[in-house]
Amino acid sequence: MPITFDGTNSTVTGGQTDPVPSGVITSSTLNNAAVTRAKMSFVAGEVVQMQYLNSTTRVSLGCSNTYAEPSSNYRVSITPVYSNSLMVISYHVPISFPTWPAPNYICRYHAVRFVSGTPNNISSCGNQSYSGATRAGLAGFSTRASNGFNGSDGSNFSLTLIDLPGTTSAIQYGFQVATEGSNNQYLGFGYSVDQGSGNSIDSNIIIVVQEIKQ
Amino acid sequence: MPIVISGTTITGLGSGGLPANSVGTTALADGAVTRDRLGAGTILQTTYLNSTTRTTHAPGNTLSEVSSSYRCSITPLYANSIIKITYHVPWNMGGGWAANYIVKVSAKRWIGGAGASDLSSVGVSNGSRWLMSGYADRPHNGYDANDMNNWSWTTYDAPNTTSAVQYGFYAGTEGGTMYYGYSGYASGGFAWDANIVITCQEIKQ
Q1: If you ran DSSP here, which 8-state letter would residue B145 be given?
Q2: pLDDT tens, B161-174?
Q3: Which of A4, A137, A161 minimises the CB distance to B197?
Q4: How high is the pLDDT of residue B15?
Q5: How far A192 CA lies from chain B's nearest CA (Å)?
Q6: Closest CA to A99 of A155, A61, A142
Q7: Is domain A44-212 given the CATH code 3.40.920.10 in the classification?
Q8: How many CB atoms lie within 10 A of CB A82?
Q9: pTM of this structure
Q10: Do B46 and A212 lie within an 8 Å CB cutoff?
Protein backbone atom coordinates (compact mmCIF):
# COMPACT_ATOMS: atom_id res chain seq x y z
CA MET A 1 0.00 0.00 0.00
CA PRO A 2 1.48 3.40 -0.88
CA ILE A 3 2.29 5.95 1.80
CA THR A 4 0.95 9.39 1.03
CA PHE A 5 2.17 12.66 2.57
CA ASP A 6 -0.34 15.37 1.88
CA GLY A 7 0.95 18.79 2.86
CA THR A 8 -2.30 20.43 1.93
CA ASN A 9 -4.13 18.95 4.86
CA SER A 10 -1.14 17.78 7.03
CA THR A 11 -1.94 14.09 6.80
CA VAL A 12 0.02 10.90 6.30
CA THR A 13 -1.94 7.95 5.06
CA GLY A 14 -1.19 4.38 4.16
CA GLY A 15 1.74 3.88 6.55
CA GLN A 16 2.43 1.07 8.95
CA THR A 17 3.71 1.77 12.44
CA ASP A 18 5.86 4.90 12.25
CA PRO A 19 9.54 3.84 12.63
CA VAL A 20 10.60 7.40 13.52
CA PRO A 21 8.53 8.80 16.38
CA SER A 22 7.04 12.23 16.06
CA GLY A 23 9.41 15.02 17.02
CA VAL A 24 12.66 13.04 16.57
CA ILE A 25 13.70 14.79 13.39
CA THR A 26 13.57 18.54 13.94
CA SER A 27 15.47 21.51 12.63
CA SER A 28 17.47 21.44 15.85
CA THR A 29 18.58 17.82 15.55
CA LEU A 30 19.43 18.22 11.90
CA ASN A 31 20.95 21.69 12.22
CA ASN A 32 23.53 21.41 9.45
CA ALA A 33 24.72 18.20 11.09
CA ALA A 34 26.56 20.37 13.59
CA VAL A 35 27.82 18.70 16.76
CA THR A 36 27.18 21.28 19.42
CA ARG A 37 28.21 20.95 23.03
CA ALA A 38 24.54 20.58 23.99
CA LYS A 39 24.33 17.48 21.78
CA MET A 40 27.51 15.99 23.18
CA SER A 41 27.34 13.35 25.84
CA PHE A 42 30.77 13.62 27.45
CA VAL A 43 32.20 10.70 29.32
CA ALA A 44 34.85 10.91 32.02
CA GLY A 45 38.25 11.89 30.70
CA GLU A 46 37.06 13.76 27.62
CA VAL A 47 38.04 17.35 26.91
CA VAL A 48 35.01 19.62 27.22
CA GLN A 49 36.73 22.84 26.21
CA MET A 50 40.09 24.57 25.98
CA GLN A 51 40.96 28.23 26.52
CA TYR A 52 44.27 30.00 26.07
CA LEU A 53 46.16 33.21 26.67
CA ASN A 54 48.85 34.45 24.28
CA SER A 55 49.91 37.66 25.96
CA THR A 56 52.06 40.35 24.40
CA THR A 57 52.04 42.35 27.65
CA ARG A 58 55.57 43.16 28.85
CA VAL A 59 56.09 44.31 32.41
CA SER A 60 58.89 44.52 34.93
CA LEU A 61 57.90 43.95 38.53
CA GLY A 62 59.76 45.04 41.64
CA CYS A 63 59.48 41.88 43.72
CA SER A 64 59.90 41.16 47.41
CA ASN A 65 59.35 38.14 49.62
CA THR A 66 55.59 38.78 49.50
CA TYR A 67 53.68 37.26 46.60
CA ALA A 68 52.52 39.71 43.93
CA GLU A 69 50.93 39.39 40.49
CA PRO A 70 53.03 40.88 37.68
CA SER A 71 49.96 41.78 35.62
CA SER A 72 46.27 40.92 35.54
CA ASN A 73 46.80 40.50 31.79
CA TYR A 74 48.52 37.23 32.65
CA ARG A 75 45.28 35.39 33.37
CA VAL A 76 43.36 32.95 31.23
CA SER A 77 39.59 32.81 31.75
CA ILE A 78 37.35 29.78 31.66
CA THR A 79 33.78 29.06 32.70
CA PRO A 80 33.47 25.36 33.54
CA VAL A 81 30.54 23.53 32.01
CA TYR A 82 30.45 21.06 34.90
CA SER A 83 31.12 21.88 38.54
CA ASN A 84 33.12 18.69 39.13
CA SER A 85 35.42 19.08 36.11
CA LEU A 86 39.19 18.75 36.20
CA MET A 87 41.27 21.65 34.86
CA VAL A 88 44.68 20.95 33.34
CA ILE A 89 46.67 24.21 33.22
CA SER A 90 49.93 24.69 31.30
CA TYR A 91 52.18 27.72 31.79
CA HIS A 92 54.99 29.16 29.69
CA VAL A 93 56.32 32.30 31.36
CA PRO A 94 59.63 33.65 30.03
CA ILE A 95 61.40 35.95 32.51
CA SER A 96 64.67 37.85 32.94
CA PHE A 97 66.65 39.01 35.97
CA PRO A 98 67.68 42.58 35.15
CA THR A 99 68.61 43.89 38.61
CA TRP A 100 69.39 40.84 40.65
CA PRO A 101 71.48 41.99 43.61
CA ALA A 102 73.15 38.64 44.21
CA PRO A 103 73.57 35.62 41.98
CA ASN A 104 72.06 33.26 44.53
CA TYR A 105 68.75 35.07 45.06
CA ILE A 106 65.74 32.77 44.89
CA CYS A 107 62.72 33.55 42.76
CA ARG A 108 59.48 31.74 43.53
CA TYR A 109 56.52 31.18 41.21
CA HIS A 110 53.04 30.19 42.40
CA ALA A 111 50.01 29.32 40.20
CA VAL A 112 46.67 30.59 41.51
CA ARG A 113 42.98 30.56 40.62
CA PHE A 114 41.14 33.88 40.68
CA VAL A 115 37.50 33.85 41.74
CA SER A 116 35.89 37.27 41.46
CA GLY A 117 39.39 38.75 41.39
CA THR A 118 40.60 37.06 44.58
CA PRO A 119 43.54 34.62 44.33
CA ASN A 120 43.06 31.10 45.70
CA ASN A 121 45.35 28.09 45.90
CA ILE A 122 44.71 25.42 43.28
CA SER A 123 44.25 21.73 44.06
CA SER A 124 47.83 20.76 43.26
CA CYS A 125 49.22 23.21 45.82
CA GLY A 126 51.45 21.66 48.47
CA ASN A 127 50.73 21.56 52.16
CA GLN A 128 51.67 24.74 54.03
CA SER A 129 52.41 22.81 57.21
CA TYR A 130 53.86 19.57 55.91
CA SER A 131 55.35 17.58 58.79
CA GLY A 132 54.42 20.44 61.09
CA ALA A 133 57.19 22.50 59.56
CA THR A 134 57.23 25.92 57.95
CA ARG A 135 57.53 24.82 54.37
CA ALA A 136 55.48 27.05 52.11
CA GLY A 137 52.79 25.29 50.13
CA LEU A 138 53.45 25.84 46.44
CA ALA A 139 51.75 25.10 43.13
CA GLY A 140 54.79 25.93 41.07
CA PHE A 141 58.46 26.07 41.78
CA SER A 142 61.39 28.27 42.63
CA THR A 143 64.65 28.91 40.86
CA ARG A 144 67.82 30.98 40.93
CA ALA A 145 69.63 32.85 38.22
CA SER A 146 71.96 30.69 36.15
CA ASN A 147 75.73 31.06 36.04
CA GLY A 148 76.92 34.35 34.59
CA PHE A 149 73.42 35.86 34.37
CA ASN A 150 72.86 39.46 33.39
CA GLY A 151 69.96 41.62 32.23
CA SER A 152 69.84 39.94 28.85
CA ASP A 153 69.38 36.45 30.21
CA GLY A 154 66.14 34.64 29.63
CA SER A 155 64.76 32.08 32.03
CA ASN A 156 61.45 30.28 31.97
CA PHE A 157 58.70 29.04 34.24
CA SER A 158 57.19 26.10 32.36
CA LEU A 159 54.92 23.59 34.02
CA THR A 160 51.57 21.77 33.88
CA LEU A 161 49.31 21.57 36.95
CA ILE A 162 45.77 20.47 37.77
CA ASP A 163 42.84 22.01 39.62
CA LEU A 164 39.34 21.00 40.73
CA PRO A 165 37.64 24.39 41.08
CA GLY A 166 34.18 23.00 42.00
CA THR A 167 32.19 25.70 40.22
CA THR A 168 30.46 26.61 36.99
CA SER A 169 31.16 30.30 37.51
CA ALA A 170 33.83 32.14 35.53
CA ILE A 171 37.32 31.69 36.93
CA GLN A 172 40.79 32.80 35.87
CA TYR A 173 44.16 31.12 36.14
CA GLY A 174 47.25 33.24 36.61
CA PHE A 175 50.32 33.32 38.83
CA GLN A 176 52.17 35.25 41.49
CA VAL A 177 55.87 35.66 42.16
CA ALA A 178 58.04 36.40 45.17
CA THR A 179 61.79 36.81 45.53
CA GLU A 180 64.37 36.64 48.23
CA GLY A 181 64.85 39.91 50.12
CA SER A 182 62.47 42.69 51.01
CA ASN A 183 63.67 45.25 48.46
CA ASN A 184 62.69 45.59 44.85
CA GLN A 185 64.33 42.81 42.88
CA TYR A 186 63.13 43.40 39.36
CA LEU A 187 61.94 40.65 37.10
CA GLY A 188 61.14 41.20 33.43
CA PHE A 189 58.16 39.22 32.11
CA GLY A 190 58.11 38.40 28.43
CA TYR A 191 61.34 40.20 27.66
CA SER A 192 64.87 40.83 28.80
CA VAL A 193 64.95 44.28 30.31
CA ASP A 194 68.41 44.89 28.89
CA GLN A 195 68.75 44.88 25.14
CA GLY A 196 71.33 45.27 22.48
CA SER A 197 73.86 42.71 23.64
CA GLY A 198 72.91 40.23 20.98
CA ASN A 199 71.23 37.86 23.44
CA SER A 200 68.18 39.84 24.54
CA ILE A 201 64.81 38.12 24.15
CA ASP A 202 61.15 38.94 23.69
CA SER A 203 58.67 36.09 24.06
CA ASN A 204 54.94 35.84 24.77
CA ILE A 205 53.40 34.56 27.99
CA ILE A 206 51.21 31.55 27.19
CA ILE A 207 48.70 29.85 29.47
CA VAL A 208 46.45 27.02 28.30
CA VAL A 209 43.61 25.49 30.31
CA GLN A 210 41.62 22.39 29.40
CA GLU A 211 38.37 21.37 31.11
CA ILE A 212 38.17 17.59 31.51
CA LYS A 213 34.90 15.80 32.25
CA GLN A 214 34.96 13.69 35.43
CA MET B 1 0.98 18.48 -4.22
CA PRO B 2 1.07 15.33 -2.06
CA ILE B 3 4.18 13.14 -1.86
CA VAL B 4 3.41 9.52 -2.61
CA ILE B 5 5.66 6.58 -1.73
CA SER B 6 4.68 3.43 -3.49
CA GLY B 7 6.90 0.39 -3.65
CA THR B 8 10.29 1.68 -4.83
CA THR B 9 9.07 4.99 -6.21
CA ILE B 10 8.51 8.41 -4.68
CA THR B 11 6.54 11.00 -6.54
CA GLY B 12 5.65 14.57 -5.83
CA LEU B 13 9.07 15.64 -4.46
CA GLY B 14 10.44 19.09 -5.22
CA SER B 15 14.16 19.89 -5.39
CA GLY B 16 16.28 20.12 -2.24
CA GLY B 17 15.05 16.94 -0.58
CA LEU B 18 17.28 14.61 1.43
CA PRO B 19 19.33 12.22 -0.73
CA ALA B 20 18.67 8.53 -0.42
CA ASN B 21 20.23 6.90 2.68
CA SER B 22 21.16 10.22 4.25
CA VAL B 23 18.95 9.55 7.26
CA GLY B 24 19.72 6.07 8.51
CA THR B 25 19.46 4.38 11.86
CA THR B 26 23.18 4.89 12.46
CA ALA B 27 23.03 8.62 11.85
CA LEU B 28 19.99 9.03 14.05
CA ALA B 29 20.98 6.72 16.89
CA ASP B 30 20.10 8.92 19.84
CA GLY B 31 22.09 11.72 18.24
CA ALA B 32 25.14 10.27 19.95
CA VAL B 33 28.65 11.09 18.75
CA THR B 34 30.54 7.98 19.69
CA ARG B 35 34.31 7.65 19.94
CA ASP B 36 34.46 5.50 16.82
CA ARG B 37 33.17 8.46 14.80
CA LEU B 38 35.79 10.87 16.09
CA GLY B 39 38.66 11.77 13.81
CA ALA B 40 42.40 11.29 14.23
CA GLY B 41 43.92 13.79 16.61
CA THR B 42 40.91 13.86 18.95
CA ILE B 43 41.72 13.75 22.64
CA LEU B 44 39.83 10.72 23.90
CA GLN B 45 40.56 10.85 27.60
CA THR B 46 42.67 12.53 30.26
CA THR B 47 43.89 11.08 33.53
CA TYR B 48 46.01 12.66 36.23
CA LEU B 49 48.08 12.14 39.35
CA ASN B 50 48.17 14.82 42.08
CA SER B 51 50.47 13.17 44.61
CA THR B 52 51.02 14.30 48.19
CA THR B 53 53.62 11.58 48.75
CA ARG B 54 56.91 13.04 50.04
CA THR B 55 60.01 10.90 49.93
CA THR B 56 63.79 10.89 49.58
CA HIS B 57 65.88 9.06 47.01
CA ALA B 58 69.60 8.32 46.93
CA PRO B 59 70.10 6.23 43.82
CA GLY B 60 73.75 6.94 43.06
CA ASN B 61 74.84 7.19 39.47
CA THR B 62 72.15 4.93 38.09
CA LEU B 63 68.51 5.50 37.19
CA SER B 64 65.83 4.01 39.44
CA GLU B 65 62.23 4.71 40.47
CA VAL B 66 61.74 7.20 43.28
CA SER B 67 58.33 5.91 44.38
CA SER B 68 55.59 3.80 42.81
CA SER B 69 53.19 6.45 44.16
CA TYR B 70 54.49 8.69 41.37
CA ARG B 71 52.66 6.89 38.57
CA CYS B 72 49.69 8.06 36.52
CA SER B 73 47.41 5.31 35.15
CA ILE B 74 45.55 5.25 31.87
CA THR B 75 43.79 2.45 29.94
CA PRO B 76 43.91 3.25 26.20
CA LEU B 77 40.68 2.79 24.28
CA TYR B 78 42.55 1.96 21.08
CA ALA B 79 45.76 0.01 20.72
CA ASN B 80 47.19 2.44 18.17
CA SER B 81 46.61 5.60 20.23
CA ILE B 82 49.44 7.87 21.27
CA ILE B 83 49.68 9.12 24.84
CA LYS B 84 50.83 12.64 25.69
CA ILE B 85 52.34 12.81 29.17
CA THR B 86 53.22 15.95 31.16
CA TYR B 87 55.35 15.90 34.30
CA HIS B 88 55.67 18.42 37.13
CA VAL B 89 58.13 16.96 39.64
CA PRO B 90 59.54 19.45 42.18
CA TRP B 91 62.58 18.24 44.11
CA ASN B 92 65.43 19.48 46.28
CA MET B 93 69.04 18.42 46.69
CA GLY B 94 68.85 18.43 50.47
CA GLY B 95 72.29 19.94 50.94
CA GLY B 96 75.61 18.15 50.91
CA TRP B 97 75.93 18.22 47.16
CA ALA B 98 78.90 19.21 45.08
CA ALA B 99 78.01 22.23 42.96
CA ASN B 100 78.63 20.37 39.73
CA TYR B 101 76.68 17.19 40.42
CA ILE B 102 74.52 16.15 37.50
CA VAL B 103 71.01 14.80 38.02
CA LYS B 104 68.96 12.96 35.41
CA VAL B 105 65.31 12.03 34.95
CA SER B 106 63.65 9.78 32.39
CA ALA B 107 59.99 8.84 31.84
CA LYS B 108 59.06 5.16 32.15
CA ARG B 109 55.97 3.04 31.52
CA TRP B 110 54.60 -0.06 33.27
CA ILE B 111 52.10 -2.47 31.65
CA GLY B 112 50.52 -5.19 33.76
CA GLY B 113 52.97 -6.90 36.04
CA ALA B 114 55.92 -6.33 33.76
CA GLY B 115 58.87 -4.22 34.75
CA ALA B 116 59.53 -0.67 33.64
CA SER B 117 60.04 -0.06 29.94
CA ASP B 118 61.10 2.88 27.83
CA LEU B 119 58.67 5.14 26.03
CA SER B 120 58.53 5.49 22.27
CA SER B 121 60.18 8.88 22.68
CA VAL B 122 63.33 7.47 24.29
CA GLY B 123 66.63 8.51 22.73
CA VAL B 124 68.31 6.40 20.11
CA SER B 125 71.54 4.52 20.56
CA ASN B 126 74.34 7.08 20.34
CA GLY B 127 77.65 5.91 21.74
CA SER B 128 77.78 5.62 25.52
CA ARG B 129 75.17 8.33 26.12
CA TRP B 130 72.24 7.60 28.43
CA LEU B 131 69.07 6.85 26.49
CA MET B 132 66.36 8.99 28.01
CA SER B 133 62.87 10.44 27.66
CA GLY B 134 63.76 13.34 29.89
CA TYR B 135 66.78 15.50 30.61
CA ALA B 136 69.56 16.43 33.03
CA ASP B 137 70.37 19.39 35.26
CA ARG B 138 72.87 20.66 37.83
CA PRO B 139 72.48 22.66 41.04
CA HIS B 140 72.04 26.37 40.47
CA ASN B 141 73.92 29.34 41.90
CA GLY B 142 74.06 29.27 45.68
CA TYR B 143 71.88 26.21 45.97
CA ASP B 144 71.07 24.84 49.41
CA ALA B 145 68.48 22.63 51.06
CA ASN B 146 65.75 25.23 50.53
CA ASP B 147 66.12 25.26 46.78
CA MET B 148 63.60 23.75 44.44
CA ASN B 149 64.54 22.19 41.19
CA ASN B 150 61.77 21.06 38.96
CA TRP B 151 61.43 18.33 36.39
CA SER B 152 58.89 19.80 34.00
CA TRP B 153 58.55 18.32 30.56
CA THR B 154 56.14 16.87 28.02
CA THR B 155 56.73 13.65 26.15
CA TYR B 156 54.75 11.07 24.24
CA ASP B 157 54.36 7.32 23.93
CA ALA B 158 52.73 4.73 21.66
CA PRO B 159 52.17 1.85 24.11
CA ASN B 160 50.33 -0.36 21.58
CA THR B 161 47.92 -1.86 24.08
CA THR B 162 44.43 -1.50 25.51
CA SER B 163 45.59 -2.81 28.86
CA ALA B 164 46.15 -0.48 31.80
CA VAL B 165 49.39 1.49 31.50
CA GLN B 166 51.17 3.48 34.20
CA TYR B 167 53.52 6.38 33.52
CA GLY B 168 56.15 7.35 36.06
CA PHE B 169 59.84 8.18 36.00
CA TYR B 170 63.34 7.11 36.97
CA ALA B 171 65.94 9.49 38.39
CA GLY B 172 69.62 9.36 39.22
CA THR B 173 72.44 11.55 40.52
CA GLU B 174 76.20 11.62 40.75
CA GLY B 175 75.73 11.40 44.52
CA GLY B 176 73.72 12.79 47.41
CA THR B 177 70.10 12.53 48.45
CA MET B 178 67.17 14.01 46.56
CA TYR B 179 63.97 15.21 48.29
CA TYR B 180 60.78 14.84 46.27
CA GLY B 181 57.82 17.15 46.87
CA TYR B 182 59.49 19.09 49.69
CA SER B 183 62.69 20.83 50.68
CA GLY B 184 65.23 19.25 52.98
CA TYR B 185 65.19 22.31 55.19
CA ALA B 186 61.94 22.93 57.02
CA SER B 187 62.40 26.62 57.72
CA GLY B 188 64.43 29.63 56.63
CA GLY B 189 61.69 31.41 54.73
CA PHE B 190 62.19 29.55 51.45
CA ALA B 191 61.44 25.99 52.46
CA TRP B 192 58.61 24.61 50.38
CA ASP B 193 56.14 21.78 49.86
CA ALA B 194 54.62 21.04 46.43
CA ASN B 195 52.70 18.18 44.84
CA ILE B 196 53.95 15.90 42.09
CA VAL B 197 51.57 16.24 39.12
CA ILE B 198 51.46 13.94 36.08
CA THR B 199 48.81 14.06 33.35
CA CYS B 200 48.14 11.59 30.51
CA GLN B 201 46.04 12.27 27.42
CA GLU B 202 45.10 9.61 24.87
CA ILE B 203 45.08 10.91 21.28
CA LYS B 204 43.20 8.99 18.61
CA GLN B 205 45.14 7.98 15.49
Answers
A1: T
A2: 999 999 999 999 88
A3: A161
A4: 60
A5: 20
A6: A61
A7: no
A8: 14
A9: 0.83
A10: yes
